[in-house]
Design a protein that fits this description.
The protein is 30% helix and 24% strand. The protein is an alpha/beta fold. A seven-stranded mixed sheet has the order 2-1-5-4-3-6-7.
């Protein structure tokens, strides 16, 4: 278990409506972190699956979805989300991305455990809306409650 790299929580984000958010606010929760851009076809292709996963798990208080947009315009992202009818929480990076969460590959998805361990990182498109992913996120979420 000790071989997982730990996430650095020293990161500032901004929500799509301009609200500043500290990444450290999500410490102790399971974080599903996806890097995407509206100009990235594989990102767009995997979005319905991520939205489905979010629909399934959004009411679990110990699981957080952070979709990090690499677009240069939040308007573009808002329009994209509205057009597609997605309700995923989108953020932009407001400070330097911590090195272990930095990627030049889109999409890249990280799953971070409540203790900060990066338990999964996947470069490229994937279908996350399946029982295996749902089960593993729920199992990780149980660690969050048991550690209180």
């Amino acid at each position: 278990e000790g071989s997982y790299e730990k996430a650095d929580y020293n990161w500032r984000l901004t929500s799509l409506d301009g609200t500043p958010v500290a990444f450290s606010d999500f410490r102790g929760k399971v974080i599903f972190l996806n890097n995407f851009a509206t100009w990235c076809p594989p990102c767009i292709a995997e979005m319905p699956g991520i939205q489905g996963l979010y629909d399934e798990l959004q009411h679990d208080p110990n699981i957080v979805f952070l979709i990090i947009s690499r677009d240069d315009s939040t308007e573009k992202v808002k329009n994209f989300m509205d057009k597609k009818g997605y309700s995923l929480p989108i953020y932009t990076s407001a400070s330097r991305t911590p090195s272990m969460l930095h990627t030049n590959v889109l999409p890249t998805t990280y799953i971070i455990a409540p203790d900060g361990s990066i338990v999964s990182s996947h470069e490229g498109m994937a279908d996350y809306n399946n029982d295996k992913v749902i089960e593993s996120l729920r199992t990780l979420a149980q660690q969050a409650t048991s550690s209180l």
